[in-house]
């Protein structure tokens, strides 16, 4: 049973990694807290659901459509919501994305109603049984492996391409990057676009095991924040480690002290912040340097 | 320039939001008709509980429409003053608004126990009738309120009914000694789930079965695999579950993935009686029992008037909703609103809370006289309906079929024990 708990914990961690990777990118580069991140994920679920129910497209293939559409959506979000509030006080920035989140929730309610929409693929609700004690959910493995592959691509992109390097440069030191001739605002746009594409992708990969409904994103956003801050703001390896830690914690306490299942990672979170205020992989000041 | 643009955009965003809200809450009947009276409605029409809140509203609307077509109430057309209350905080302010601005003397609602609990408090303080159709938490009617009436049974009765069904109908067919039957209870940890679990636990222990687990979890959870692995290691024969929609679907999907096989499974409303459950689980939903109010039962158990009303309600609902049949929540909403407008207020002779209260307390309708099968007689102390009871359904061919009590059962073919995952296509055949 211990092995089963560890496996489900790591796979659950995969779910949380998926949900938080875009958040950490936007957070790290543009220093904007995107409260609408959960809703972007929710829209990703809906898009995948409609692609599935209208064109019978498997969620794993639909990511080819979801990623570009959500990149575009992200750039629009940057242009119309984030950029106008960049020079405003932080409170205004919070309300801009928070407002967007409420708007998107209610828009989804208006357009699609509050029904729980599910996708049934040939692999959803199935598992690989290794022994009578251990079984592994196929849809979680698919989500886990796909997200690791996409992450690998993302990391290579950040390390090897010009735009990727520019994104990293801006996240490390905005002024120096600007002096080197990098168009910071354009980099922000790319970062928000990529962040949103990641959230849409997360929605697409999560729908075979979850369900799309207007407030589907809410349950992921809070955990995503924990994962991001735990791992260190803006750090992709941090988000990966943070996600797996939270998944394991939830899974282990769920069996032994079910009453503390939700509380466990918050307790751990507080302890980590006391010892390492910048998170596990964080750099000092990463969250502070804004675009002024 | 940039600032102007952002202000413009934000205004636009807000406008869209406001228009959206207005559209949601402004769906009253005919306006401007002479001599109309307002009835307050509090329901979660947005937010996480919106799905079933809107379903109740559909039932309310059909009752309003039918009553207004038949010359209204006391010669007046009925209009709804609708307040959207996604949670208990907004329930309090919504109730205040309905009482102070719309001057209603009756508020109906509210589907969710938390909302009902908060809103009825305001109604009681202002001596306004609170007419509850479907919130089940026990403590709502345990406060000794004078203006609160509840048509549905309390949650602990629901849990008891599910467990009694297990003891009386399921266990004789399991070919096991009663004391060998292992029962696990899982429930979401709000007042609804906890009270259902309490009622079920009481009956299970009294019958001498082994209670191996009673697991609570938050319905907002993203993962129940740890609960499933724990249950799997305890090897229960029967699970009694009380879950909302999302967590219920999640639990059964993960239970299937883990290969958690059972001899019987009894749900208590929530996930287990809505079409989304079958949509998510397919044939694997078949064989699962549900205790709760039913909207698809054998109408031979109803008297002639109720049967006619039942059919008219089904027809009108289907005509408005692409031919879909109403869920139990719409039926309970309709039932509560129709009784109020068609029987209670006419008997009271006015919209005054005192008169309505007297008329409600004097009501005595036998079982089988309403479209959900219940009778109506309010307990003079708690003012909870004493003649409401849950029915038991089984999922067969991805549809929910009422099987018990026998006079309301649609079929005698009940599959016990539950076939394993993947072999459930023939349940009920």
TrEMBL record, chain A:
<comment type="similarity">
    <text>Belongs to the binding-protein-dependent transport system permease family. LivHM subfamily.</text>
</comment>
<keyword id="KW-1003">Cell membrane</keyword>
<dbReference type="GO" id="GO:0022857">
    <property type="term" value="F:transmembrane transporter activity"/>
</dbReference>
<protein>
    <submittedName>
        <fullName>Inner-membrane translocator</fullName>
    </submittedName>
</protein>
<feature type="transmembrane region" description="Helical">
    <location>
        <begin position="134"/>
        <end position="158"/>
    </location>
</feature>
<dbReference type="InterPro" id="IPR001851">
    <property type="entry name" value="ABC_transp_permease"/>
</dbReference>
<keyword id="KW-0472">Membrane</keyword>
<dbReference type="GO" id="GO:0005886">
    <property type="term" value="C:plasma membrane"/>
</dbReference>
<keyword id="KW-1133">Transmembrane helix</keyword>
<feature type="transmembrane region" description="Helical">
    <location>
        <begin position="61"/>
        <end position="82"/>
    </location>
</feature>
<feature type="transmembrane region" description="Helical">
    <location>
        <begin position="35"/>
        <end position="55"/>
    </location>
</feature>
<feature type="transmembrane region" description="Helical">
    <location>
        <begin position="240"/>
        <end position="257"/>
    </location>
</feature>
<dbReference type="InterPro" id="IPR052157">
    <property type="entry name" value="BCAA_transport_permease"/>
</dbReference>
<dbReference type="GO" id="GO:0006865">
    <property type="term" value="P:amino acid transport"/>
</dbReference>
<keyword id="KW-0813">Transport</keyword>
<feature type="transmembrane region" description="Helical">
    <location>
        <begin position="263"/>
        <end position="283"/>
    </location>
</feature>
<feature type="transmembrane region" description="Helical">
    <location>
        <begin position="213"/>
        <end position="233"/>
    </location>
</feature>
<feature type="transmembrane region" description="Helical">
    <location>
        <begin position="94"/>
        <end position="114"/>
    </location>
</feature>
<keyword id="KW-0029">Amino-acid transport</keyword>
<feature type="transmembrane region" description="Helical">
    <location>
        <begin position="6"/>
        <end position="28"/>
    </location>
</feature>
<dbReference type="Pfam" id="PF02653">
    <property type="entry name" value="BPD_transp_2"/>
</dbReference>
<keyword id="KW-0812">Transmembrane</keyword>
TrEMBL record, chain B:
<dbReference type="InterPro" id="IPR028082">
    <property type="entry name" value="Peripla_BP_I"/>
</dbReference>
<protein>
    <submittedName>
        <fullName>Branched-chain amino acid ABC transporter periplasmic binding protein</fullName>
    </submittedName>
</protein>
<comment type="similarity">
    <text>Belongs to the leucine-binding protein family.</text>
</comment>
<dbReference type="InterPro" id="IPR051010">
    <property type="entry name" value="BCAA_transport"/>
</dbReference>
<dbReference type="InterPro" id="IPR028081">
    <property type="entry name" value="Leu-bd"/>
</dbReference>
<keyword id="KW-0732">Signal</keyword>
<dbReference type="Pfam" id="PF13458">
    <property type="entry name" value="Peripla_BP_6"/>
</dbReference>
<feature type="domain" description="Leucine-binding protein">
    <location>
        <begin position="38"/>
        <end position="364"/>
    </location>
</feature>
């Amino acid at each position: 049973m211990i092995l089963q708990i560890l496996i489900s914990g790591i796979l659950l961690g995969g779910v949380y990694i998926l949900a938080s990777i875009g958040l950490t990118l936007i957070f790290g580069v543009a220093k904007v807290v995107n409260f609408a991140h959960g809703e972007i994920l929710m829209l990703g679920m809906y898009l995948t659901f409609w692609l599935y129910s209208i064109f019978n497209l498997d969620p794993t293939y639909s990511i080819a459509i979801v990623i570009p559409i959500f990149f575009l959506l992200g750039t629009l979000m940057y242009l119309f919501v984030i950029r106008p509030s960049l020079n405003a006080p932080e409170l205004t920035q919070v309300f801009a994305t928070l407002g967007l989140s409420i708007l998107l929730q209610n828009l989804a309610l208006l357009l699609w109603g509050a029904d729980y929409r599910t996708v049934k693929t040939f692999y959803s609700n199935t598992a690989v049984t290794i022994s009578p004690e251990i079984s592994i959910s196929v849809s979680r493995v698919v989500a886990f492996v796909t997200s690791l592959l996409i992450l690998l691509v993302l990391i290579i992109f950040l390390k090897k391409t010009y735009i990727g390097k520019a994104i990293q440069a801006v996240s490390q030191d905005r002024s120096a990057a600007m002096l080197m001739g990098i168009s910071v605002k354009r980099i922000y746009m790319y970062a928000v676009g990529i962040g949103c594409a990641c959230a849409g992708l997360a929605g697409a990969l999560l729908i075979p095991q979850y369900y799309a409904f207007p407030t589907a994103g809410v349950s992921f956003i809070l955990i995503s924040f924990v994962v991001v801050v735990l791992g260190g703001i803006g750090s992709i390896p941090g988000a990966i480690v943070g996600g797996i830690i939270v998944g394991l914690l939830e899974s282990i306490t769920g069996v032994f002290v079910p009453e503390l299942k939700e509380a466990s990672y918050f307790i751990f979170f507080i302890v980590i912040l006391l010892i390492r205020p910048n998170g596990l992989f964080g750099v000092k000041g990463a969250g502070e340097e804004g675009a002024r | 320039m940039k600032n102007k643009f952002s202000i413009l955009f934000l205004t636009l965003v807000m406008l869209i939001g406001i228009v959206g809200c207005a559209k949601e809450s402004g769906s009253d009947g005919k306006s401007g008709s002479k001599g109309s009276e307002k009835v307050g409605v509090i329901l979660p029409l947005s937010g996480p509980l919106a799905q079933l809140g809107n379903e109740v509203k559909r039932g309310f609307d059909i009752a309003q429409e039918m009553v207004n077509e038949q010359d209204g109430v006391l010669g007046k057309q009925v209009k709804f003053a609708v307040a959207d209350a996604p949670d208990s905080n907004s329930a309090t302010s919504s109730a205040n608004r309905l009482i102070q601005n719309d001057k209603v003397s009756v508020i109906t609602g509210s589907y969710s126990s938390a909302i009902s609990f908060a809103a009825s408090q305001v109604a009681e303080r202002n001596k306004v009738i609170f007419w509850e159709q479907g919130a089940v938490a026990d403590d709502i009617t345990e406060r000794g309120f004078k203006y609160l009436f509840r048509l549905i049974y309390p949650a602990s009765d629901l849990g008891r009914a599910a467990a009694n069904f297990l003891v009386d109908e399921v266990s004789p067919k399991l070919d096991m000694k009663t004391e060998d039957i292992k029962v696990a209870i899982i429930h979401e940890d709000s007042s609804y789930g906890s009270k259902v679990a309490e009622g079920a636990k009481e009956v299970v222990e009294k019958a001498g079965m082994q209670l191996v687990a009673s697991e609570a979890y938050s319905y907002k959870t993203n993962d129940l695999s740890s609960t499933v692995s724990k249950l799997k290691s305890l090897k229960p024969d029967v699970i009694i579950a009380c879950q909302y929609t999302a967590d219920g679907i999640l639990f059964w999907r993960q239970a299937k993935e883990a290969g958690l096989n059972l001899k019987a499974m009894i749900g208590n409303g929530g996930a287990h009686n809505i079409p989304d459950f079958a949509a998510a689980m397919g044939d694997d939903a078949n064989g699962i029992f549900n205790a709760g109010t039913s909207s698809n039962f054998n109408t031979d158990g109803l008297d002639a008037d109720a049967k006619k009303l039942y059919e008219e309600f089904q027809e009108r609902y289907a005509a408005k909703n692409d031919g879909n049949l109403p869920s139990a929540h719409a039926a309970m909403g309709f039932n509560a609103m129709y009784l109020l407008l068609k029987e209670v207020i006419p008997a009271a002779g006015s919209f005054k809370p005192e008169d309505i209260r007297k008329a409600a307390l004097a009501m005595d309708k036998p079982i089988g006289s309403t479209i959900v099968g219940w009778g109506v007689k309010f307990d003079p102390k708690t003012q909870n309906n004493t003649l409401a009871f849950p029915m038991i359904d089984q999922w067969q061919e991805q549809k929910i079929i009422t099987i018990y009590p026998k006079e309301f059962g649609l079929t005698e073919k009940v599959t016990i024990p539950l076939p394993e995952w993947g072999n459930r296509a023939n349940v009920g055949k």
